[in-house]
Request: fold
Amino acid sequence: MISEIYGFPVYKGKFSNPEKVLHYIQECKLEKSDKWNANCLISAENGSTNVGEEENRCINDDIFNEITKHASEMLKELDINLNVSPSECGKLGCKECRDVWVNKYTKGHNQNMHWHVDNERGILFSFAYFAKYDSEKDADFVFVNPVPRDVCHREMLKHPAFSKAVKMDVEEGDILIFPCWMLHYVTTQQCEGPRITMAGNLYEIKSEE
Reply:
């Protein structure tokens, strides 16, 4: 299902086996990194660069295929003739450059406003998967309105289209896919949780190998 957030398409779908995915990614080694704008624990120093041992992989073929399937459904609904996957090199079968990581938030953790734009790497879309998430207690995923606040009349700001930000309505097992330039952040986690998400980027598939 696609909704429009500040003029841009945001896809929301649900994984077919969220329990299995959570069981797998909970085994990933997580650390803090000074290269990120967040104080949560993560499985990557920078995108597909894993922390710790080389075998510390937070994504297997089943998860990769599930992400790619939802990306295909989004593009089909948008009527865009394009194939994408998390493989940064553009080769669908490559397992060495899957740009996916795990985030674990406990009390006091948050992530500052950011986007995933990187012209040199060719990122097209980004995604967030909510592996362990309590919508009543856990921190919110929020998109930020890119419209400059100082050019809007105060009466305009009362309309949802000109709101400062919008909190996404998501549940455990949901995936959001959105253009990489959409600004977003995670509010401060107020409970112990943990809140566990999987995030990453999508690239054009240039080879089926």
User: Anything to note?
Assistant: The longest strand covers residues 195-204. The radius of gyration is 17 Å.
